[in-house]
Records
---
Amino acid sequence: MHIVFCCTDTNAAPWLQGLREALPEASIENWQPGGQAGDYAVVWAPPQAFFDSQHALKAIFNTGAGVDALMKLTLPADVPVVRLDDAGMSVQMAEYVCHAVIRHFREFDVYEAESSQARWAYRKPRRRCDFAVGVMGLGVLGARVCRALAQFDFPVLGWSRSPRQLDGVQCFSGEAGFGDFLAATRILVCLLPLTPETEGIMRHDTLRQLKPGAYVINVARGAHLVDEDLLSLIDSGHVAGATLDVFRTEPLPAGHPFWQHPKITVTPHTSARTLREETIAQIAGKILALESGASVAHLAGVVNPDQGY
Ligand code: NAP
Ligand code: GLV
């Protein structure tokens, strides 16, 4: 069995070592143009030239949860794409979103500013029931985030493509449920995959439907948000601010208005990082399962090409 590794912006050496330890029977190489074609590919944002050189793949393993970059390429026909299924990301995402929600709700950003001026001043407690959190995307990450938020007694709403049921979460689905979901939400969290249906989903006419004093947390992909619409709704006072981890261009360009905006917190696409050990264990386990005759349909995280996620 031959495995080809092609992850851009990644130090390949520890990945190759980890994969070799997990799959001692396999030959594993970092991809080079002209190299041997693989049975399996382990990739993150590979160039089209990579797939143009692969004609024997049985499966493609993405070392992230989102496959939007991959789905823009021409992939070999009928080869399954398998994305990361949690692999240590959901707990990180729950930490990040709970931190952002609580920081905003409890006004810790204001306290930070006041303490930097040596100012001792209380703020009036706000009512939790006025800060319903709406999570778009109830998959592996969104469901974990909802559970974590519910532990803090926030009213939690969720929205997905197909109907879902989650304990303690008021669930909405599809186009039909979107308006009611937005109207009941004060803090909006985006955990959708980026697809043609979800691109630009946070724009003026949707954000306008949130409760006044809304807050936006984007931890999915930058292209889910129309940057100018967020800025104009903050200017108008309808949106109180945002915590943004992902951007249309990454790194966020110097001079982008988000960097210096007093109501926007920026982090560098770090809300849920790919963890090497967990990722290698998950991918190696799936390769071994396939090699022992398991059907792809039994693997978690297989991408539906028609849905794009
Ligand atoms: P997932 O398990 O595939 O869940 C996706 C969820 O989105 C599902 O609930 C799905 O609905 C819903 N959805 C998809 N299209 C929809 C639509 N058109 N309308 C309404 N709901 C829709 O994905 P995941 O593992 O939770 O990851 C979600 C995303 O997080 C990834 O795609 C990636 O972009 C992002 N991410 C970001 C970071 C970071 O560091 N910032 C890290 C990891 C992942 P159904 O339940 O009906 O299928
Ligand atoms: C990170 O953004 C991922 O999709 O895993």
---
Amino acid sequence: METKRALITGVTGQDGAYLARFLLDKGYEVYGTFRRLSTPNLWRLQALNIFERIKLIPMELIDSASITGALMISRPHEVYNLAAQSFVGASFEQPVGTGEVTGLAVTRLLECIRHADPGIRFYQASTSELFGSNPTAPQNEDTPFMPASPYAAAKLYGYWVTRTYREAYNLFCTNGILFNHESPLRGLEFVTRKISNALAKVKLGLEQKVVLGNLEASRDWGFAGDYVESMWLMLQQDGPGDYVISTGETHTVREYFEEACAAAELDPSGILDVDPKFMRPLDVDLLLGDSARARQKLGWAPRVGFKELVRMMVQADIQRWKRWQKGEQFPWDAFNYPSEMNIITRAMPV
Ligand code: NAP
Ligand code: G4F
């Protein structure tokens, strides 16, 4: 049987790395696109020890020629579109750029696929942020969308154009409406990893406080390693569709912080500050997903629960900072962030 080929856009991101490993384990030939930056961001692929097994292709989502090039090189059976400006907070600062990359680029990709090979199966990384300000909970595939950020508005466009290409051209185009999913490979700007990283520094005496924004927002947090399996399952079905992927449990940011303190064996009192600069102009209060359709049709279910997830993230960051203190070198993202570099520089022997 012919080896299956998959093309993952955004392979350098959290989900891209976990999905690449999952597909390699299934015997796929995995191609991944990355953007040419002055400093390549490959630490996640190195951390999962898969860097050398992935065929990397430079690709710009704003350049159709480069998308066509990536399709010609990889000749994929499946395309997973994970690349996006994915940080909701930044979408308020870069609303137009976010619209280009997170929204309009989906059409560019679909047009290239339609002309290159209409047999390709396409996965679009849609999001629970689409539900936005809708107070209905839990949210499922029939809950009306009320996006509450430029990011969510761009993703809404991506969601609908994916459905449009499915219906207009009979392409296999599927939306995974994934609720928040986290891991030790999460970017440091997202609240869960921000907390695990900050608590690790507090634990080791490198920092005094954790400074956050809105503590009352509630999220349905799962483990990214579990969620990438659902992406693959969606593309193995007889036909395309839209699926909510979630745990069915929700917790506030404050609860996540308290659980993380317990995991780090730290007293939560006195180490948490709130700074309005981390508040958004508009926030989503409550996300809680009902993934009954995915559980029934895909046979998918999350394996890692909330407490285990928090522990996994906190332990991973404590280990990283300990290894750094010992002078070890290992794949890590702290060097990409000015806030972390300040600490690293401050703590360096003179
Ligand atoms: P992530 O870690 O932020 O990864 C995003 C990827 O997109 C990275 O590979 C990044 O490349 C790439 N990218 C960013 N801007 C780009 C640009 N201008 N041109 C080309 N590539 C660009 O996000 P994730 O958590 O893995 O999420 C994967 C996808 O699922 C995203 O589309 C996200 O919006 C969506 N999603 C995520 C969640 C979640 O909770 N994680 C939930 C629902 C939906 P660099 O490495 O070069 O930055
Ligand atoms: O971790 P967050 O930045 O994730 P958010 O906004 O829920 O978005 C993530 O999940 C979406 C799926 O629902 C994805 F589509 C999206 O790509 C991304 O992966 O923020 C979570 C909550 C927010 O309410 C935010 O206001 O935490 C609150 N928060 C409080 N203090 C903070 C902070 N968020 C961040 N990033 N940093 C803080 O200091």
---
Amino acid sequence: MIKKNSPIPIYYQIVERIQKQIANGDLQPGDALPSEREFAEKYHISRMTVRQALTQLENDGYIYRIRGKGTFISEHKIEQTLPGLTSFTEDMTARGLKPGSHLLHFEIIPATEQIAKMLRISEYGPVYEIKRIRLADHVPMALETNYISANLIKGFTEDIVNQSIYAYMEEQLGLKIEHATQTIESSVANETEAKMLEIKPGAPIMLIQRNTFLQDGTPVELVKSTYRADRYKFAIQLRRKN
Ligand code: GLP
């Protein structure tokens, strides 16, 4: 029941109630929610309060709205455990989703100062610039731009980079990808990102930069990614020092 004189705001009680129904499976991805008016009548609250709750749930990626059709429960977020150095292809396959890519750009360019420094190659040295939309079951999840030294990695073709870059480097070239450093920042989608990720401009995204190294310490890639925050979350194990 909604408690009108609780210190917890009414809109937030609605938010928690819906989150709970999603967590225990009463509400499944794709299920339609009642309209604002029906909600308001059911709980004897104002439509503005209902709207506030739905906006919060939408911003947090629990629901989505289709104009003229209604409000629906979103797919569950894909959870990636942070310490594992995995590829997109492995992440999706592990979840039973079909990995895919849409290649936007594939070119050898001269390394800028920043790219050269990270890849430890000379400035203007040849690097592949690979831009891909990464898909899970044909749904866009992320935009990724990889910079990889063309002197280190030979033989990339459009066909190869449209599939798994890690699989090619490990299985075809026998390289040992070993560790990476990664930063994650929150941001909002601009017009171009929104269009490619099929989200609204201003929707939350995560900017991820990964610097990946081979076993012998050679930097192998610099990757700048934009992940949909409504479909992706990261999990990390924390251990208290004793
Ligand atoms: C993830 C990482 C990228 C990495 C990519 C390789 O998406 N964020 O840094 O380049 O995996 O994926 P794949 O082997 O599927 O091309």
